[in-house]
């Protein structure tokens, strides 16, 4: 064991050798990516399986493109062995609106391509900009950029979709109250609200349509709405699920329950807006100190300072 440690410590790796090794790894990854793309697109086994799948489906199965097959072949190279991390990514993809079984595969495939691009950027900086300042930091930043860019983009997509769905909840609740009070059943009311929100809030309309389909298929109303909370990641409507389940269990009026929840939700939104408005003065302190006060002192004290300097100069 000591001889092995002595042998390892005898190697002196300088900076140039290290970056050459990084470039070698990036080149190998690029060649591996291209080879996997070519092999997967021409694989006879995949072609045969795709043909069997197309012939077994009665006009409903969609053909998978060569690019999708190639991405599926690249995914295992970047897929994490940690099941908890994979489940977290899968939940984020579901919150972003990607419910397909192959969404996780495509995400890891795109992450692998992003990592290769990051290594190529680092190699370009090393070869074409050797005299740039903080070259090592830029190269490390390029690799980190390629590694974490897909996660950042996915997080922004989740926030954007949740913001759109959250914006459609008040309109949906008001329409649902009107529909239930006019005599429509709850399932028919959800269907009507989903049809009305198709243009203004398409994401939330799609989720409501899924809830309506599940209720029509025999799923309990509370379970269907709990699935809605799970798919969207919005905990704001968890209270609605509880109130509807309680009302259906005791035989209460759904329209009255919806009206009370709508009023509570409206009050909650007003409180959130007031909280945001109360934070504005605190957030304005920094730009006030940096941009406004220096201009004020220049205008107020500048002329007197110029007059004082000219007087003392004479």
From TrEMBL:
Q: Is 4Fe-4S one of the keywords?
A: no
Where in the numbering of this chain does the Type II secretion system protein GspF domain appear? 173-300
Question: Keywords, A to Z?
Answer: Cell membrane, Membrane, Transmembrane, Transmembrane helix
What topology does the record note for this protein and the membrane? Multi-pass membrane protein
Recorded superkingdom: Bacteria
The places in or outside the cell where this protein is found are: Cell membrane
Output the Pfam families linked to this UniProt entry. T2SSF
Q: What cellular-component terms does GO give this entry?
A: plasma membrane
What sections of the protein cross the membrane?
Answer: 18-39, 103-128, 134-154, 285-308
Please name the InterPro entries in this protein's record: T2SS_GspF_dom (IPR018076), T2SS_GspF_sf (IPR042094)
PANTHER family (UniProt xref): INTEGRAL MEMBRANE PROTEIN-RELATED, PILUS ASSEMBLE PROTEIN
Q: What is this protein called?
A: Type II secretion system F family protein
UniProt lineage: Bacteria, Pseudomonadati, Pseudomonadota, Gammaproteobacteria, Vibrionales
